[in-house]
Specification:
The complex is a heterotrimer of chains A (about 300), B (about 300) and C (about 150). Chain A has about 300 residues and is mostly helical. Chain A is about 70% helix and about 5% strand. In chain A, helix 2 runs parallel beside helix 5. Chain A is elongated and about 80 Å long. With about 300 residues, chain B is an alpha/beta fold. In chain B, about 30% of the residues lie in helices and about 30% in strands. Chain B is built from ten helices and 13 strands. Chain B has a six-stranded mixed beta sheet with strand order 5-6-7-3-8-9, with helices on both faces. Chain B has a four-stranded antiparallel beta sheet with strand order 11-12-10-13. In chain B, helix 6 links the parallel strand 6 and strand 7. The longest helix of chain B is centred in the middle third of the chain and has 18 residues. With about 150 residues, chain C is mainly alpha-helical. Chain C folds into two domains: about 90 residues, Winged helix-like DNA-binding domain superfamily/Winged helix DNA-binding domain (Arc Repressor Mutant, subunit A), CATH 1.10.10; about 40 residues, no CATH class. Chain C is globular. The chains are: A mainly alpha (about 300), B alpha/beta (about 300), C mainly alpha (about 150). At the B-C interface, helix 6 of B face helix 2 and helix 3 of C.
Chain lengths: ~300, ~300, ~150
């Protein structure tokens, strides 16, 4: 059965392996010089905010902005590809082409057949994506120091593996439900995008109650993740968005930059943030919830295969 | 011989359609059984229930004595080839054999390889590039290599050209001769199975219309033709399977030997297997026909 | 529908008999096989102790039920034309109803002479065949009515 799973998913597994090796290789190959370059910056005290450090940060950012941004953004979409091209066809192709009538009438029960196949794919997916996630975590370290780990959150660390696992099992479950390969792939993509959207913009910012802080000024690096920000006047009143816009427009007419004027007149900017120190806590929350959802999807897949497809 | 396949009031519903309805039979072992009926009669559904691919809505089925068809212990003793001989098209023939070896504890790999070599089907050829006849032979080889006691084939020759069909049936009969396997073959035409099968099950509208050994069935049934005027008289004390009236001539298909002589003007002859099957299929309630009184009334309205 | 493939035979001897089945004659398949063996023995194509094709070989070539062949071979045993040897196969027995050679040759000569006069009288080959068929059918039904 192990051979059979390999044989049926040979192409996909090879592509995945190549992708991991390729992306990991790029990350390491580009990451080593990047880390060296950042070591020079780090030598200067980032917190001091002196002009030399600022200049070096600018240089570093300029040189490595491209690779620093593109690599983790690319990883954002890998999970859905796994879901679409490995998870969705797994059962839907058997059902659509009728080969399930061959597979389920040998001497193995459906449950065992599914368990071995799904189990092996899950194992390989988790191992490869965990590996890649950790490599990316290492790679991203300089940027994490400069601007925090919130932006690349979904591509670094165990959360990436959890997302990939979830996508795989989402595809498998939808494949068992929909029974047509192309439709299952489309549904997987659609569902995953919606879920990802909701999680990224509605759920993740509130895994833990955000902190309200006065935004530090004159800081070279800021690792907080900002949810929202607003100005407060010297009397302690919050400036609404409309008020701020009116003020800014009036100032702009006189050629004055709003932020400078506000700071000069002792206005303070406050913000609702998630500090970078919460990174591992958030990773744990996201990973655990996705694993729970994955387990539910796996259970649903088993149920569908055993009962409904009759 | 012990029954290899038994069903009692088996029923299967898909949505609002009944694919099987009050289906009951008992197939003895050691035969090649033809499961015949028009499309939609329930043949595939019946076979799918027998191999655990489908759960019946009601009733019971027993395969080789096992009441749970999806039990791997039962599947181990059955060979099944679904309609259109499904195979993994991107696999090579050797891959398919390996699949069989991986999924079946009882597997005669040498037998399968020898068989395919004898049929000139190369082991390294991709399944998708084989002809329809060759694919059917590969599927049959997979089923036979399990060394089953019972072989279930769903319309195995429907897609094959006459030569491929003949070769398939020849191979199948050779396997039966060699190993004494019981076989159930479904088809919507009896012609291609007639010389191979010695037991017949006719299905229509999800029910079993008639079942029995071919020789016995042909022996028991007669076609009687005669004038309408004496039709009712002829029908009494005979089990009439089907009656039809055309002008002044009545035709009766009867079952069983009657002691009463035929009235004057009546002739009798044996039916061909095809005629017998048609008689049962054309009659919605084949075993419960109107009695003599209704026959007269029907005659008078003509 | 003849024995095409060279499937395995017990003693490795070449196939001695090709079976043909005609689905339209109304004669049961097993009887057709019996008649063909009888005919082969009468003509001398099959001699004493020649092995009849194995059941497996026959069904493989004709795609018929093995029971049909078994029934035919049993009938041949019953008629004294063949004998089954367990584990070895079915073999032609010295037939007791086998016509002695001289008588057979005389019948054949008589027929040849008749054929000559029929051709001289203007009968075509097809008409000769039709005549033979008609007489065979008449003889058959006469035997059946008896």
């Amino acid at each position: 059965m192990i051979w059979l799973t390999w044989r049926q998913h040979r192409a996909a597994l090879i592509v995945c392996l190549l992708a991991v090796v390729g992306i990991g290789g790029i990350a390491i190959a580009a990451g080593i010089p990047m880390h060296h370059a950042f070591a020079a910056v780090h030598a200067a005290d980032l917190r001091a905010g002196d002009a030399r450090a600022a200049a070096q940060i600018d240089i570093f950012t300029h040189n490595y902005w491209a690779i620093g941004n593109l690599l983790w953004r690319f990883l954002l979409f890998l999970p859905v590809l796994i879901g679409m091209f490995v998870g969705a066809p797994m059962l839907s192709r058997e059902l659509e082409s009728g080969t399930y009538r061959l597979a389920w009438t040998q001497s193995i029960s459906r449950s065992r057949w599914l368990a071995v196949r799904l189990g092996l794919l899950t194992l390989v997916t988790v191992v490869l994506s965990l590996l890649l996630g950790m490599v990316l975590y290492w790679f991203y370290a300089p940027w994490a120091a400069l601007s925090g780990r919130a932006e690349a959150f979904a591509s670094i660390g165990p959360a990436f593996a959890a997302r990939t696992l979830f996508a795989l099992l989402l595809g498998a479950a939808l494949g068992a439900l929909i029974r047509r390969v192309v439709a299952a792939m489309a549904a997987t993509a659609g569902a995953w995008i919606v879920i990802e959207f909701v999680r990224t913009f509605w759920l993740r910012p509130h895994y833990l109650p955000p902190l309200t802080i006065a935004v530090p000024t004159n800081k070279l690096v800021d690792t907080n993740a900002y949810l929202s920000q607003w100005w407060v006047d010297p009397a302690g009143h919050r400036l609404s968005g409309v008020q701020f816009d009116a003020l800014a427009q009036g100032l702009a007419a006189k050629g004055v930059v709003a932020e400078h004027w506000l700071e000069a007149h002792h206005y303070v900017m406050w913000a609702s943030v998630q500090p970078d120190s919460r990174f591992w806590a958030f990773q744990a929350i996201e990973t655990a919830s996705l694993c729970a959802a994955s387990a539910a999807l796996a259970a649903a897949t088993f149920w569908l295969v055993r009962r409904r497809v009759s | 011989m012990r029954a290899v396949l038994e069903a009692r009031a088996l029923a299967k519903r898909y949505g609002h359609t009944w694919a099987l309805r009050d289906c009951s039979f008992s197939l003895p072992g050691g035969h090649v059984v033809a499961l015949v009926g028009p499309n939609g009669a329930g043949k595939s559904t019946l076979l799918h229930v027998a191999v655990g691919l489908t759960q019946p809505t009601a009733g019971a089925i027993s395969v080789l004595g096992n009441p749970a068809p999806s039990d791997p212990k039962s599947l181990m003793r059955i060979g099944f080839v679904a309609q259109s001989a499904p195979l993994y098209r991107t696999f090579s023939v050797a891959d398919m054999l390996r699949l069989g070896r991986a999924m079946n504890p009882r597997w005669d790999d040498a037998y399968a390889r020898d068989r395919l070599a004898r049929l000139n089907i190369p082991a390294d050829r991709t399944v998708g590039r084989l002809s329809g006849g060759q694919q059917a032979q590969v599927a049959l080889s997979l089923a036979l290599a399990k060394r089953p006691e019972l072989l279930l084939l769903d319309e195995p020759v429907a897609d094959l050209d006459p030569l491929a069909r003949h070769e398939f049936m020849g191979e199948l009969m050779a396997a039966v001769a060699e190993h004494g396997i019981s076989v159930v073959l479904s088809s919507h035409a009896i012609a291609e199975l007639e010389r191979a099968c010695d037991y017949l099950v006719v299905m229509g509208s999800g029910k079993v219309k008639v079942a029995g050994e071919v020789a016995a069935l042909v022996e028991e049934h007669l076609l009687l033709t005669g004038p309408v005027s004496t039709a009712a008289d002829t029908a009494t004390s005979r089990t009439v399977v089907r009656q039809s009236l055309a002008g002044r001539q009545a035709t009766l298909v009867v079952r069983g030997i009657s002691r009463r002589a035929l009235p004057p003007g009546w002739r009798e002859r044996r039916l061909s297997l095809e005629e017998l099957i048609l008689a049962y299929l054309r009659e919605p309630e084949a075993s419960a026909l109107p009695g003599p009184q209704e026959l007269i009334l029907a005659a008078e309205t003509h | 529908m003849t024995l095409g493939k060279q499937t395995e035979t017990n003693t490795g001897s070449a196939l001695l008999l090709e079976f043909h089945l005609d689905p339209h004659t109304g004669v049961p398949p097993y009887l057709q096989l019996v008649h063909q063996v009888e005919g082969a023995v009468r003509l001398g194509t099959l001699g004493a102790d020649d092995q009849l094709p194995t059941v497996k070989a026959v069904v493989s070539a004709l795609a018929i039920n093995p029971n049909t062949v078994l029934k035919a071979y049993r009938e041949l045993e019953h008629r004294g034309l063949a004998i089954g040897r367990p584990g070895l196969g079915t073999f032609v027995r010295e037939s007791i109803s086998y016509r002695p050679a001289p008588e057979r040759q005389m019948l054949r000569d008589t027929f040849a002479a008749w054929l000559q006069s029929a051709t001289a009288a203007g009968l075509s080959e097809a008409e000769v065949r039709a005549l033979v068929e008609a007489e065979l059918i008449a003889a058959r039904s006469a035997k059946g009515a008896a």
